[in-house]
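Narrative of activities, Objective 1.

The group set out to show that a structural description can be obtained from nothing but a protein's sequence at a throughput compatible with the screening campaign. Below is one input-output pair from the validation batch, recorded exactly as produced.
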Amino acid sequence: MSKFDVVVIGAGAAGLFCAGAAGQRGLKVLLLDHAPKVAEKIRISGGGRCNFTNREVSPANFISENAHFCRSALAGYTPQHFIALMESHGIAWHEKHKGQLFCDRSSGDIIEMLIKECDVGGVVRQQPCGVQAIRCTDATTQPGHRFELDTSNGLVHAHQLVIATGGLSIPKIGATDFGQRLAAQWGHTIVPLRPALVPLTFTAEQWAPLVPLAGISLQVEVSASLQNTAAGGKRKKTEPPLFLEDLLFTHRGLSGPAILQISTYWHAGQALTINLTPTIDLASSLKQAKTGSRKQLSTQWGQSLGDAVPQRLAQTWLTQQSNTNTALRTDALLAELKDKDLEALGRSANAWSITPSGTEGYAKAEVTAGGVDTRELSSQTMESKRVPGLFFIGEVVDVTGWLGGYNFQWAWSSAMACARALTPQPD
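Output recorded for this entry:
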């Protein structure tokens, strides 16, 4: 039997970081993971360069049933703190689009840094090591040994237990719902899990006319309808952000940063509103061009769109609209068209309303939304309000960030909040 001040289950971003920080505070720490390799999600993120944080992190960049929960942890450990740690390890980085920070060389630099931090803290790492069962012991009769773990490497006793097992996203690298199931076993409410930061799909019939557009990318504005579905099936009014990002047409639906962002806010049955030309009011442009014009609609349509929309998309879009409104024949003279028809054509691109049938699922989702209900955790320490000495950090918790480094920052911030609260077992 082995005895530790802290056992951390999950050697991803949050688990590695928490274990290292706790070890460097003098605690005896054991870090376990069922996978043979550490931090595979870090390794594959950001195209192999890891978008490790965002310079402009705020609570507004996160979604949760308890919207203010993340505030304390984010304030306690900021992007600047993590940048300073990286620079102390000599890791070069650069800033990309909208405050996103990436490693210059490789995401492996982050993993190596986190392992070094664990080594400095004397953390004992065991991988692969499965956990078959966990029991709460009577702390009054066994001071300092609140938890008893049956692992593939033997029996372990721990004063405190940290769950950093993430979610269901990217199952091919070993993702499971172990942490959520464990939380539920001990009476915690679980906000329903769903794929987030994920491409959206449509039925074959719905998408067939747009399949030829696969591969086209353009900058759009995208938003979801105002009604979101809360946990338990209740309806609540929220206002999802309006995202100005790139959209990508695929053979099955829509992807790209714009869609990944809005997918976190999307629920089944909700419509998306997409503005394909955020800088152009197409209805006004077409009506202004109408006076004295001898051009065909197809010619003016192309000129109004300019470079804002790829030509293949522009042509396909007009053809589809003419199929549903015979007045909008591509060879019709612009001057002969009614304003209401030009307005309808403009709205079709400036306020394209479309309802996805689903998502590409956890296999393509970057994160898992939902998780351990934060109303049952301390926002200061991440400790359970139901089970003393039990902590939940990172993606296992119902806190989901935007695309762009926010979820990694939540991993660092929640891990540090937890590490600072951990204590040695009493004598």
